[in-house]
């Protein structure tokens, strides 16, 4: 077929361009290019041609194994294409969609090639997790049709790529999705003003960009242009500014606002109540002081609230009264660890039965744990560790907790878990931390049913007993067992060798 012959079969010049691309790839462990042979390049894996003209319009060679590569940190790129990104891509003049993401070694520490800025028809460019470094080419600003741009470098905290001046972004007015996570933008003084020229943005990810707010703070600019923005992530930056009087609170279309670890100070802004569409709010690991604003009550769609490691320094019942309860979709996740909250009970918590995560660790909560906690039927994750709770936890506290997977009641002021010896728990735990709770003196029989336990910490739990015969089989899949400061008599050491425990702490196995 000659150029433009139609029928979606491959155009020879474009086939040649793809073969040149392939020739610059030195290794392809995931066999992404395995089907790149034969005449019709439109049939090759990852290639899509226009059905009428036959021009290549899409090249998607993203690496599915990127998550795995993240996990095996020291062996990045096990599945990645190796080699160079050939500028033969320029001979694909109708290319609209280019995705090379997740090929962790393809960038090989080089800058993003400048020729990318000449792929004029691109609407979708995903170069995330390619291990680029150096300057982001401002030539990308020539891609005036771009709707989607992702140059998140993957291991974001490394900040190997940078852009001193992001004014080129303003030439991409169609952008809806922009992810520059891990690109060092610390020298980009006017980043807020530049972003304000992208009125179509729906998703904006600027996690680990070294952003500082020093330059834009004084203007207290409200981002009136970003009326469609639904997701904003500014985490791990040096905003170093008060949370109040911030342009952020003008972004009333936000559904997700994630700004953890960004050096926000001062108090919580009342304007939070203007963000009525918010479903996710993460202001954790900042330095915000004082009670959450009463206006938060208006944020009816809030499902995920993360505030840990701030200094709320108030009573939990007041806090709970300020949480929204105006819709059927109630809060699912509430993390308030290390927020300096006080209070005598958790009594007021008992309404939101939609909760699946309740994290209140490292606070100053006192008194007994209310039995109503057992009505939180959707709870999977409960942490009350390092508080000052006292009293007894009984079967009734666990009565409705059929979905509980993780519990941490460690290091309170003498919390006791006292249940009948024939009690059958309604849950199947995975992580069980009950350090310094009173469980003894007998070894708790209810643990026998918890065969899915990965981690068990019952150290210093007042147990003085013979290790039950079922201990070794029930916990044979566990990876972490801590029974130190208990007095356990081992009755059969032989079975020990069949276990796969990675960590076993025990000070007094007799
Ligand atoms: C398109 O393909 C059909 C058969 O699949 C063929 O008959 C026709 O000639 C082709 N047209 C062109 C322009 O190549
Ligand atoms: C592309 O962008 C660069 C840098 O922004 C600019 O110097 C150059 O003239 C542009 N090229 C074209 C063909 O527009
Ligand atoms: C980010 O860039 C600034 C200069 O613009 C530089 O001083 C700083 O060291 C860079 N940060 C990292 C983590 O490379
Ligand atoms: C809003 O965006 C337009 C371009 O789309 C720009 O001309 C204008 O200056 C922006 N407004 C503000 C307040 O930045
Ligand atoms: C935002 O909230 C503040 C304080 O709660 C209020 O005065 C202001 O009118 C609100 N703005 C909008 C646009 O709703
Ligand atoms: C907790 O609040 C008290 C005042 O109630 C204050 O003195 C203390 O510094 C706060 N702790 C932290 C870690 O902020
Ligand atoms: C919502 O909270 C208010 C104040 O905390 C309370 O009076 C009201 O009963 C709650 N409404 C629902 C539906 O739970
Ligand atoms: C509990 O979780 C289920 C499944 O996710 C959900 O359908 C149900 O609405 C939740 N219950 C409450 C009270 O939110």
From TrEMBL:
Keywords: Cell membrane, Glycoprotein, Leucine-rich repeat, Membrane, Receptor, Repeat, Signal, Transmembrane, Transmembrane helix. It holds the Pfam family LRRNT_2. It comes from the Eukaryota. Gene3D superfamilies: Ribonuclease Inhibitor (3.80.10.10). InterPro entries: Leu-rich_rpt, LRR_dom_sf, LRR_N_plant-typ, LRR_R13L4/SHOC2-like, RLP23-like. Coiled coil: none annotated. It is found in: Cell membrane. Its main location: membrane. It is a single-pass type I membrane protein. Residues 89-259 form the Disease resistance R13L4/SHOC-2-like LRR domain. The keyword Glycoprotein applies. Residues 13-49 form the Leucine-rich repeat-containing N-terminal plant-type domain. GO terms for cellular component: plasma membrane. Belongs to the RLP family. PANTHER family: LEUCINE-RICH REPEAT-CONTAINING N-TERMINAL PLANT-TYPE DOMAIN-CONTAINING PROTEIN (PTHR48063:SF3), LRR RECEPTOR-LIKE KINASE (PTHR48063). This is Uncharacterized protein. It comes from Aegilops tauschii subsp. strangulata (Goatgrass).
